[in-house]
TrEMBL record:
High-level lineage: Bacteria, Pseudomonadati, Bacteroidota, Flavobacteriia, Flavobacteriales
Cited Gene3D superfamilies: DD-peptidase/beta-lactamase superfamily
Keywords associated with the record: Hydrolase, Signal
Signal peptide: 1-18
InterPro entries: AmpC-like (IPR050491), Beta-lactam-related (IPR001466), Beta-lactam/transpept-like (IPR012338)
A single GO molecular function term of this UniProt record: hydrolase activity
Positions of transmembrane segments: none
Start and end residues of each Beta-lactamase-related domain: 63-363
Natural source organism: Ornithobacterium rhinotracheale
PANTHER family: BETA-LACTAMASE-RELATED DOMAIN-CONTAINING PROTEIN, D-ALANYL-D-ALANINE-CARBOXYPEPTIDASE/ENDOPEPTIDASE AMPH
Entry superkingdom: Bacteria
Annotated protein name in UniProt: Class A beta-lactamase-related serine hydrolase
């Protein structure tokens, strides 16, 4: 029965996907010019007069967390906590390069993993604001080789496209060869030649899928006429003052933190490592704070676009969690709301959390596989009235027992 339903859906909407000679986007994108994006003027929506008191009150809890969750669990990562756009706690543990005996520092670029999706979404929304793109625009109108006619840009942003994650593409001797370094163009070519499954009709279900953001990177290239790394530099990194942030280029590698297994061994290269948009942006906690501050700016995005970005689109099941335009969220009936995104690629575990009601930010970027990095999410319960974990730290400033007994991990 499941096979019949899938076949019917595919026949109704995706009939053209069986073509094997569908054209694909050339490796050199051709697009139109786009406006220069200047640095946002951030008018922070709060009075920082009580910042010193807040910092003093929270320090014992933050110190206890860092000691009992990170140091005790040998995390290799950077942690930054901010209130009112100002850093109130920042520490780094572990090494960026074990062979060279180099420590992680505040200016060490770390692979963001899926936090990269937030930045890709920001670039797309800035193009929408500039009138170069529409959220309801069909993807095929931008990428003619894309075979699924009813999938829109919004569907990609919200993970409601129904597409298969490229991580599960089956090897193909011509279009998806094992061992060959894959690119975003290979993802599009695989789809264009009808080799991928589809999990549902568009905008019917939420299904987290890296393919969506690999395609969004190609759309950015198509609209701007620039390669994705250059477009991101011009639209996001430079205007926001993210001076240690870039899209990694495997043909011209830069000095970055290495990625390690839990045992501290260097993580081997994967043939999916060159695909970007969904991942492959390197940054620092301080640079992500620059993004976080910019998201309060009136000239960053219009109020209407910011509202669209931060609302949930997947309401088939009632619950706390949802997904907006490139950002996850947790919203409780009591009114509290957290925006966040986690990441995981190889040994890089990352999390970025913002509570706009309390103007708090939590940024944790790790380079050695260790789920304790995600425990930083629960600091929101220390910084504001959010119902997330760490009850022992709230009550005692200390944890002498196994921290995993009370932790509320938010890894997804």
């Amino acid at each position: 029965m499941r096979l019949i339903v899938f076949t019917l859906c595919a026949t109704l909407l995706f009939a053209c996907s069986a073509k094997t000679d569908a054209p694909v986007l050339n490796d050199s994108s051709q697009g139109v010019s786009y406006p220069t994006f200047e640095k946002p003027l951030v008018n922070l929506p709060y009075n920082p007069s009580n910042l010193a008191k807040f910092k003093q009150e929270k320090q014992p809890y933050l110190q206890a967390f860092f000691r009992d969750y990170w140091e005790a669990n040998q995390v290799s990562a950077g942690l930054l906590v901010a209130k009112n756009g100002e850093i109130i706690f920042e520490k780094y543990l572990g090494q960026a390069d074990k062979a060279a005996n180099e420590d992680l520092m505040q200016d060490t670029p770390i692979h963001l993993a899926s936090i990269s999706k937030v930045l890709t979404a920001v670039a797309i929304l800035r193009l929408v604001q500039a009138g170069k793109l529409k959220l309801e625009q069909p993807v095929y109108s931008l990428l003619p080789a894309f075979p699924y006619k009813e999938v829109t840009v919004r569907d990609l942003l919200t993970h409601r496209s129904g597409l298969q994650n490229y991580a599960y593409f089956k090897p193909h001797k011509k279009f998806w060869r094992e061992g060959k370094m894959k690119t975003n163009y290979d993802v599009l070519e695989y789809l264009a030649n009808g080799l991928s499954q589809t999990y549902s009709l568009p905008n019917k279900n939420f299904s987290y899928c890296n393919t969506n953001y690999a395609l969004l990177a190609l759309i950015i290239e198509k609209v701007t006429g620039e390669r994705y790394p250059i477009a991101m530099q011009k639209m996001v990194f430079e205007p926001f003052g993210m001076n240690h942030t870039f899209v990694f280029d495997y043909k011209n590698p830069r000095e970055v933190s290495k990625s390690y297994t839990f045992k501290g061994e260097l993580w081997p290269e994967s043939d999916l490592d060159a695909i970007c948009g969904d991942k492959n942006i390197y940054s620092t906690p301080r640079d992500i704070l620059q993004l976080d501050r910019a998201m309060y700016a009136d000239n960053f995005l219009t109020p209407e676009l910011k509202k669209l970005m931060k609302q949930g689109y997947s309401n088939e099941r009632r619950g706390v969690k949802n997904y907006g335009l490139g950002i996850r969220m947790m919203q409780w009936d009591s009114g509290e709301k957290l925006l966040y995104h986690n990441g995981w690629w190889h040994g890089n575990y990352t999390t970025y959390v913002r509570g706009e009601q309390d103007t708090i930010s939590i940024i944790a970027l790790g380079n050695q596989r260790n789920r304790s990095v995600y425990s930083a999410f629960s600091l929101a319960g220390i910084l504001g009235k959010y119902p997330v974990g760490l009850e022992k730290i709230k009550n005692t400033h200390s944890l002498n027992e196994n921290p995993n007994d009370t932790i509320n991990l938010q890894a997804e």
